[in-house]
Amino acid sequence: MRIDFRSSADFDLNQVQTRNLQSGIDMSRTSIIALLIFGAVLGYFLSFGPETTQKFKASVYQLLAPFLTGGSGIKKQITSVRSGLKSLDQLEHENAVLQVENRELRATNQGLRDVEHEVNRLRHALNYRERSVFKLIAAEIIARDSSTWWRTISINRGRRDGIETDMPVVTDLGLVGKTTTVSDSISVVLLVSDENCRLAASVEGSREQGIVSGERTTTGLTPLLNLNFLS
User: Fold this and answer.
1) Which of 4, 45, 54, 125, by CA, is between 20 and 30 Å from 107?
2) Range of 209's domain?
């Protein structure tokens, strides 16, 4: 006599397989029943005439209309978002172009202001020349060394223009200095801010007179004028 002993695991495995098989059979039955019902309903409606079929189609379309309308609305929203993104790119491009044009206009405006300032300066100088009781010779500064900024300048006039040593140099704002070294076409002007430039001066509104001279300063500082020997 042979006796087989099977473990509890073998029984569990058989039970699981039996359950899976039963579930598959139930699903197959459900699918078959659903197909039969669908076929019966379809055959029922097809048995009617064309008018009934059209009504059935109209009812189906009416049921599906909200979904179709919703899908169309979503499509429109997506199209609108894409258009908005495209418009944003265009706005960024236009903004960049406007910024470049703005910088160019600022540079042009600054150039025009510089020209206006120069024109006004020349106009004042011309008016001063016409009002002056002295014979004036127009000149321009052609050189100014940073190491002697408050001491000397060079102008584009010399002996051929009638310039001589110790001649006063003035502008419409007042005295600038006097000529020291004079060549045929260039002259060096000693500025009143230099300590070696001493000029006689009088106090306006009184009889006081004295000597005006500059002062020695370190680099970066503006020298002051001193009025000494008042009498």
Assistant:
1) 125
2) 138-228
